[in-house]
Design a protein that fits this description.
Pfam families: SMC_ScpB (PF04079)
CATH superfamily of the largest domain: Winged helix-like DNA-binding domain superfamily/Winged helix DNA-binding domain
Distance between the termini: 31 Å
Strand content: 5-15%
Shape: globular
Low-confidence stretches: 1-39, 103-117, 240-251
CATH topology of the largest domain: Arc Repressor Mutant, subunit A
Mean pLDDT: 75
CATH class of the largest domain: Mainly Alpha
InterPro entries: ScpB_csome_segregation, WH-like_DNA-bd_sf, WH_DNA-bd_sf
Protein name: SMC-Scp complex subunit ScpB
Number of domains: 2
Number of helices: 10
Order of helices and strands: HHHHHEEHHEHHEEH
Strand order of the largest sheet: 3-5-4
Radius of gyration: 22 Å
Keywords: Cell cycle, Cell division, Chromosome partition, Cytoplasm
CATH architecture of the largest domain: Orthogonal Bundle
Organism: Leucobacter weissii
């Protein structure tokens, strides 16, 4: 998902859906939904989407695009289902990804992802972190992924990426929200790009908000030819007077 951009109005879908027909189709082509001028979906469209997809499918879609761990309550609100059902569905998904099967009556949700038995372990897993759930590459595949990233053709970072990297370098550990506040723009895509390049890494969670905190990775030190962040030049001489968000405090 590194460097993804989403066009304005993305997500608009077309034509009307019959929830009953979706149930009778046995998992065929999902019904088409009505278009909306603003690209958003109304209550009827959301109801049709929920009727056309299993609870597990809905949860997977939400978890796939989330930048932060999503809690059971937030997921339940998004899919309009009880929290207990969401928790059961999540456990069914985790068992499916791990190549396991939930025993009957052992928390398996109706129509769960793996009702027939154990399957093959996936290359990713669904972890419970920071009070929520998030997809991660399976740890045993980390060397493969790291090698793949290193072998990608080097590309120059955009000005936005360089500015965001500077904020993280001088203010770490820092949350995505704090970075966005300093730069006064959305930084979700840029942060994903920097993570993909191995220049920054997750270093913990904020004790009050639970937000993920970011810091620089050793790879950045190698690129800069320094032994530690303390060797970075003072920030004040590099900025115009009155620059907000970089008053030097805590640097």
């Amino acid at each position: 998902m590194t460097g993804e951009t989403f066009p304005d109005g993305a997500g608009a879908v077309s034509a009307a859906a019959d929830p009953k027909a979706a149930e009778d189709s046995g998992g065929g082509t999902p019904p088409r939904l009505p278009e909306y001028a603003d690209g958003g979906a109304g209550a009827d469209a959301l109801a049709a989407v929920r009727a056309a997809h299993t609870l597990e499918q809905q949860l997977e879609a939400l978890l796939l695009v989330a930048d932060e761990p999503l809690g059971a309550v937030a997921l339940a609100t998004a899919v309009d289902r009880p929290v207990r059902e969401v928790r059961r569905a999540i456990e069914a998904l985790r068992a499916d990804y791990d190549g396991e099967a939930l025993r009957a009556g052992d928390g398996e949700a109706p129509g769960s992802a793996n009702p027939a038995g154990a399957g093959r372990r996936r290359g990713f897993e669904l972890r419970e972190v920071a009070g929520g759930y998030r997809f991660y590459v399976r740890e045993t595949l980390d060397p493969l992924v790291a090698d793949f990233v290193r072998q990608q053709s080097p590309s120059r970072l955009s000005q936005a990426a360089l500015e965001t990297l500077a904020v993280i370098a001088y203010r770490q550990p820092v949350s995505r929200g704090a970075i966005a506040s300093i730069r006064a723009v959305n930084v979700d895509g840029v942060v994903r790009t920097l993570l993909g390049h191995g220049l920054i890494t997750e270093v913990g969670q904020d004790s009050e908000t639970g937000a993920i905190l970011y810091g620089t990775d050793d790879a950045l030190l190698g690129h800069l030819g320094i032994a530690g962040i303390d060797e970075l030049p003072p920030i004040a001489p590099l900025l115009d007077d009155g620059s907000e968000g970089f008053d030097g405090e805590g640097l």
